[in-house]
Design a protein that fits this description.
Blueprint: H1 2-10, H2 24-30, H3 36-44, E1 48-52, E2 55-59, H4 62-68, E3 81-86, E4 92-99, E5 102-108, E6 118-121, H5 124-132
Antiparallel strand pairs: 1-2, 2-3, 3-4, 4-5, 5-6
Helix pairs in contact: 1-5
């Protein structure tokens, strides 16, 4: 988690008093356990809305996760992608569950369409590392 903490601080994420979110309800809704690095972010930092390198990034609060991923907004055929933010334009950022302890962070105009998803990280931390190196999301 040290690398994650370093990147969050470097990019100006605002710390909040640590909370112990109960992830059970959101995980039940989305059908998988959220990655530990992402849970750490939600428990220790406020939502983010700013540029990181060349990309604009909006990351939701846990309350926003419920709003963006509530029943009725999810289609059955993409149950294993949770929308966690957006790029301030028309693309959504999501965490895609592949298998136990294996996730991808993806971006797509329609996050529910698996064929449109572009990998932007192999984890939440890896997404931030790629942003730090100014790796383009779209080529």
């Amino acid at each position: 988690m040290e690398e994650l903490k370093y990147l969050l601080d470097k990019f100006g994420f605002v710390k909040q008093p640590q909370v112990d979110n109960d992830f059970q309800e959101i995980e039940s809704l989305i059908g998988f356990h959220l990655p530990e690095d992402y849970k750490y972010y939600l428990n220790n930092y406020k939502p983010f809305d700013d540029s990181i390198g060349k990309q604009y990034v909006v990351l939701y609060s846990i309350d926003d996760l419920f709003e963006m991923n509530k029943p009725g907004t999810l289609d059955e055929w993409y149950t294993y992608t949770v929308q966690i933010g957006n790029n301030g334009a028309s693309e959504a950022i999501g965490i895609k569950f592949w298998e136990l302890n294996n996730y991808k962070v993806v971006i797509a105009q329609y996050i529910q369409n698996i064929d449109d998803q572009i990998e932007i990280g192999t984890s939440f931390t890896d997404m931030l590392k790629r942003l730090d190196k100014e790796i383009e999301w779209f080529n």
